[in-house]
Structure formats: C-alpha cells, structure tokens
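TL;DR need structure tokens for one chain.
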Amino acid sequence: MKKWICIIGSAVMILCLSGCENNEVESNAFPLALGIAAEQDGGFHMYIAYPDLEDPDAAEQAISKDAFWDESLEDLTEGTDLMSKVSSRNVDMNHLKVLILDGRMLDDGANTDCLIRFFVEKEDVAWNAYVLLTDGEMEDLFSEETQLNSCLGIYLEDLLEGWDHLKAGSLITVGDLISQYYNRNEMLLIPVVSIDESQPVVERFAVVSDLSVIQERSMEEVFDSTRSLILFEE
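>> reply
TL;DR here they are.
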C-alpha cells in the first residue's frame, strides 16, 4: 500500500511544485480498479475507480478515497477514450490493480473475444492486475456507499495478497487470462467478490475451464492444506 501512496502522491506533488493549478491536477486519472459487465441486450458496461486527486488530502493520503466513472459501451476499446473525452482526464491504466468481471463476460464467447481484444490493443493496461468475478451488481462495488479505508483497487489487492494459505502463483492475473484464451491448457481458480455490510468480501472461488465457469468452491475447500488446489478434478 505504501508504494501506491508514493506513486500517486508523488504525481500530485510534482504537479503542484511545477506551478499547476487545481484544474490541471484534476485532469489526470489513475484507475486502480476496473469492472466490466455484459449488458442483457448486448454491449457492455465499464466501471472505473481511481484515487480522487481533487481531495484536499490527496498528496498525503492518495489512496484514501475513490472517484468513479461508468458508461455503457458498444465496444470495450472505446472505454478509456470515452472517459478521457467526457471528463477531460488523461487516463493512465498502467497502475491497474484489479479487474472485476461479471460471469457473462466469460460464459459468452463473443464477450470474451471483446475482453481479450481490449487488453491486447490497449497497450497501457497493466497485465499483472488480479482478476476477480462477481455475481452481484457491479455498481454496488463501484460506489461511494462502500465503507473502505483505502481505494477499491488497493483494498482488494491487499485482501488477495493477505491469504497466507493460498499457494504461490494461484492468483490469476490479466496476463494469465489472456494466456488461457489462446492456449486453453489449464483450469483457473478465480475469487468471487460480493458486498457484505457495505464492504467487498470473497467467500468462494469460481472454477473456470475453457474460460467458462463450471462450478464453485468454498474458501474452506480452497484453503484446506491437506488437499490439492486441483479440487475440481474430483
């Protein structure tokens, strides 16, 4: 967490020291959490949470509060460009920490094609961001109603990396998802995030084969040190 305070806090301080006014600070956005949902009638809905650099305490507590943006899209590749146009912000996706998908993004081949194309074509998006699924309403996660002590992306990253009993390399990244799209050579275990009492929680994992969810496993099953993580082969 301290690393991201330094990165984003430094960005604010550099802008201030160079004589920039408030509106120049506000023209930058560093998304740390990205949500993508498939809409019922076709198309997608993109959600972005990024540190609020307009917050007076942003230089010292850069990850304490999120600002949010969301929009319906026909094509995912339009997403960050549209955000830049309508908000007059320079969107830098290099610091993305988590990608949250609804189940339909993987269960529908056309949606998966669009998702992978987005990450392959957008060269500034971090491929080391962790992947999560959600079976709830995405807008509940990307909301000011959530009660967090940090930005959503940092909160979820800390949650995932705090699991001592999960085997090294078990957390799936965007790069892993892209690799499986082309190779289809292994099953994936992806955390499922939901909202409980205004906070994001992970209570189970989705088992993904051929980039489709085939079943779910509880936290107890996944963390049981006496069994293999390849539980879904039983």
